[in-house]
């Protein structure tokens, strides 16, 4: 039975699946998947500064790269944090879309809808920049990342 570790994507892509044991190859071709998981989580910290402190203090603080249970717990904690952020962004977008529709209906006489729309787009622009950052990360690092 193969043991898998999954990392969820902060941009809604399919999760990356790692198969335990994480080390493969020999000598100079040796590849440590556990370190790749940790590096990927650190890259996400760079892309989502609002989560950086929490990820570093509560998720990246205690793990053993040679223990499946420890790495599974690390991935589970990370996935819960990412799922919460994605759900929050989806919830905020739904609220913002509802506000945008109400502002557009009321914008005819007073023109007040434009500031609400700008505020809404400002919030979405941050999330779009996160997706653009994912593309930058993908171009700088190995192809097998959380963002694929």
What does this protein look like?
This protein is mostly helical. The chain has a single domain (3-140), classed as Orthogonal Bundle (434 Repressor (Amino-terminal Domain)). 66% of the residues lie in helices and 9% in strands. The chain is built from four helices and four strands; from the N terminus they run ββββαααα. The strands form two sheets. Strands 1-2 form a two-stranded antiparallel ribbon. Strands 3-4 form a two-stranded antiparallel ribbon. Strand 1 and strand 2 (16-20) form a beta hairpin. Helix 3 (68-110) runs antiparallel to helix 4. The longest helix has 43 residues, at 68-110. The chain is elongated and about 60 Å long.
Topology:
Blueprint: E1 3-7, E2 16-20, E3 23-24, E4 31-32, H1 33-47, H2 49-59, H3 68-110, H4 113-140
Antiparallel strand pairs: 1-2, 3-4
Helix pairs in contact: 1-2, 2-3, 3-4
DSSP strand count: 4
Global morphology: elongated
Radius of gyration: 19 Å
Number of helical elements: 4
Domain count: 1
Lateral strand order in the biggest sheet: 1-2
- Unreliable residue runs: 108-148
Mean pLDDT: 74
Please state roughly what percent of the residues sit in beta strands, choosing from under 5%, 5-15%, 15-25%, 25-35%, 35-45% or over 45%: 5-15%
What kind of sheet is the major sheet?
2 strands, antiparallel
CATH class: Mainly Alpha
Helix- and strand-based class?
Answer: mainly alpha
InterPro entries: H3-K79_meTrfase, SAM-dependent_MTases_sf
Protein name: Histone-lysine N-methyltransferase, H3 lysine-79 specific
Keywords: Methyltransferase, Transferase
GO biological process, one term: DNA damage checkpoint signaling
